[in-house]
């Protein structure tokens, strides 16, 4: 049976769940993630993602290219999920229980010089 992991934003207005293991679990160093969090962000790409409540409470931001959409809670500002060009959903790994450890780094060409965590993990300049 697949593991179901639920998570919510800080204020509880948004709630979602993911089922199964992520297609990709990574530290993302892209400029957008660094601007959003001030550091690399732990992300998981999931095939089975479901919003349980609060999708209408989100502010939806398009990337510069217009191909990726980031959704944040309009009440508390929490990052809730991203939608990739192929429709895959990206959830914040740090909010999920049980925890999932990232297995690689992506967008390392954008990595800040202060970002030295987990150098033993594979490093990619884009999505692998």
Describe the structure.
With 128 residues, this protein is mostly beta strands. Helix content is 5%, strand content 38%. The chain contains one helix and ten strands, in the order E-E-E-H-E-E-E-E-E-E-E. Strands 6-7-8-9-4-3-10 form a seven-stranded mixed sheet. It has a three-stranded antiparallel sheet with strand order 1-2-5, with no helix packed on it. Strand 6 (58-62) and strand 7 form a beta hairpin. The protein is globular, with a radius of gyration of 14 Å. The two termini are 27 Å apart. The mean pLDDT is 87.
Write the layout of secondary structure elements.
Layout: E1 4-8, E2 15-19, E3 24-28, H1 31-37, E4 41-46, E5 49-53, E6 58-62, E7 69-73, E8 79-83, E9 89-92, E10 104-106
Parallel strand pairs: 3-10
Antiparallel strand pairs: 1-2, 2-5, 3-4, 4-9, 6-7, 7-8, 8-9
Overall shape: globular
Question: What is the terminal-to-terminal distance?
Answer: 27 Å
Strand arrangement in the largest pleated sheet: 6-7-8-9-4-3-10
What is the alpha-carbon Rg in Å? Answer: 14 Å
Helix-strand category? mainly beta
Q: Total number of helical segments?
A: 1
Order of helices and strands: EEEHEEEEEEE
